[in-house]
Amino acid sequence: MKRWVKGGLAAGGAAVAAGALRRYLNPEPRYSPWEKRPYGEFEKKVLVVGGGFGGYAVTEKLTEMTRARDDVGVMMISRENFFTFWPMVAGTISSDIDTLNVAQPLRRALITAGASFRRAALRHIDYERRVAVAEGGKEFSYEHLVLAVGAQPNFFGIEGVAEHCLTMKGIADAERIRNRVIERFEDATLADGDVPASSLTFAVIGGGSTGVETAAEIDALITDALAPDYPGIRRDRVKVILLTRGKEILPELDPALRRAARARLAARNVEVLTNAAAERVEADRVILKDGREIETENAIWTAGGRPNELLKDLDLPLTERDGVIVDEYLRVADRPGLWSLGDCAAVPNVLAENEKERYVPPTAQAAVQEGYVAAENVLASLDGREEDLKPFEYRPMGHLVELGSEFAVNEVLGVRFSGLLAALVWRATYLYKLESPRGKAQVATDWILGLFFRPAAAEIRRDG
Question: pTM value?
């Protein structure tokens, strides 16, 4: 066969393959823009409030189950028009992952699935009229409403935390932490190193997975990106300290994995202080209950969350910790057509073995599982099939915690492992779970480039 014929066949085959790949990565939406009926015109309407893991899961599952139906309309309203892929947020601190690649566009994903989206902040629910009222007075009618408004930091009444601590609950927080570290290095360089020790000490309060990952990423930013660019700052002057009120970090993990994580942090020059409960935070120090003082102007709070403050204004049955009371089917008590899930809900753990496990933990994997069950139950209720309601049973799949780009501690279905292999599994798992095909490609590219280039270290001031 002539060379030009072979070349033509190869080029044609490549074009077909490229076209197939393009169609796979850019699926056709359920409706063309001109065919999509307004949400208000559907006979049965389901409104989802909140664009986190739980809200996204229930919306995606509902649209999947009603794909062949023309009587059910699904709409999500959320304060933000992007979905934050939380497992990768800490990685943006060190520039291991670009911030924009962690923010997945909600509108495009939901339109593709067949749902509607509006960026709006819920303010009130009229339960008699079955209408949700957003900021500015915009009303959204519903037959069933799924409340998934998430959580916010819990400061436990500790003096000075709100005034003097950065928090770590989302992309903007991670960006602020990153900017603070860079700002301190710039200030120290400008002053020829004549700055107090507190200026170059970064104290992360909270020994759970968020605190551990945050401390590890701050150290990675300092060691891998900043240290070579700021030769005038001695590395031994810069401290990263992780404070936990408990006896161990990562209490949810097996003891062997805790030890591995702590050894990794020590090797990376992150100091871990246990039994270090904060009593008060001041502008230049953290005072512990045992009298110790940590001199720092850079305290970062990761020590817990609580249900969204908004819930108190919605006339809902709440627990003593302000979580929405739901039954095993995720229905809100005494509120027909209302469901709740995720971090804002007190979901009963029907498989609990003791009182401590009474409620399902407020984790992303739990929220996703709740979202899938809620979708099935909402649809069954819409169709009058109350006998088909399924009780929610939480099935934990494990824990994955990354400590920098080359080390993780994982527990998956009872299998425990750590190190580089665990880091590769962490990356493969969460790359697969990213919803956006474009996001998958961009994050993978970030990681590949990280093998050859040092991370960028620029402070982006978005507030002008």
Answer: 0.91
